[in-house]
What we know:
Residues 1-22 form the signal peptide. InterPro entries: Entericidin (IPR012556). Pfam families: Entericidin. This is Entericidin. The structure is a single chain. This protein has 47 residues and is an all-alpha fold. Helices cover 94% and strands 0% of the residues. The protein is built from 1 helix and no strands. The protein has one helix spanning 3-46. The protein is rod-shaped and about 70 Å long. The termini are far apart.
Amino acid sequence: MSDFWKKIFAVAMISGMGLGLAACETAEGFGQDMENAGEAIQDEASE
Length: 47
């Protein structure tokens, strides 16, 4: 494999890892938001 393709592959791998980490953070934040919304609805329903 030429040096050019090795560099392209390395950039693609690093970009993929960065996007993967960003997606994990987003999914975790979304889960917390949904949990908070569910608790607020439950509190209103019990009043």
